[in-house]
Amino acid sequence: MKQERWSPHVTVAAVIERDGRFLVVEEHTPDGLRINQPAGHLEAGETLVDAARRETLEETARAFSPEALVGVYMTHIDQAEGMGATYLRFTFCGTIGQAHDARALDAGIVRTLWLTADELRACQARHRTPLVLRSVEDYLAGRRFPLDFVHTHSVGPAQTDS
Questions:
Q1: Count of other CB atoms within 10 angstroms of residue 157
Q2: Average confidence score pLDDT of the chain
Q3: Residue of 10, 34, 32 lying closest to 85 (CA atoms)
Q4: What is the number of other CB atoms lying within 10 angstroms of the CB of residue 119?
Q5: pLDDT by residue (tens digit) across 95-129?
């Protein structure tokens, strides 16, 4: 019997700061209403930067211009019966455009909020994951890697590795 290959869920997130406040979303999750950065899963054929742009637009109705990578984070979440999921998250920072009022927010997103770092620290129990605050703290500490730190190499079907 062939064993299934394990692979993590690859996600992206955006830390967006303006005038001392951070853009976050309030969203429905299986654990109730939670706060998160604009974030989501990498889709087939996308670069990480493109995924961060797309997810931010879908969740905030605002165009995101990534400027740097804040960090790469891995989280393992244990679930019932020994099952679990591992998430590999690439968090970018950058600037945001004006809201597109006619654009609907992604399913599950209730609203966007601008919160200070202290407000985010005060509501940690409502964060979707501990990475919400960790990403902000890393951003505030000045952690930045140039976008070319993340390289995308596309290969044709005959050149794939197994």
A1: 5
A2: 90
A3: 10
A4: 14
A5: 999 988 888 999 999 999 999 999 999 999 999 99
- Tokens 């952690």, located at residue: 143
Complete DSSP assignment for 12-36: EEEE-EETTEEEEEEEEETTEEEEE
3-state SS, residue 121: helix
Pick from 97, 87, 94: nearest CA to 42: 87
- Given a contact cutoff of 8 angstroms between Cβ atoms, the answer to whether 41 and 71 are in contact is no
8 Å CB contact between 145 and 67: no
Ordered by where they begin, the domains of the chain are 9-145 (3.90.79.10)
3-class secondary-structure state, position 73: strand
The model carries a pTM of 0.88
DSSP class per residue in 96-120? EEEE-TTSPPPTTEEEEEEEEHHHH
> Is residue 24 a contact partner of residue 132, using CB atoms and an 8 Å limit?
yes
Q: Alpha-carbon dihedral of residues 134, 78, 87, 137, nearest 10 degrees? A: 0
Enter the tokens of residue 136: 């902000």
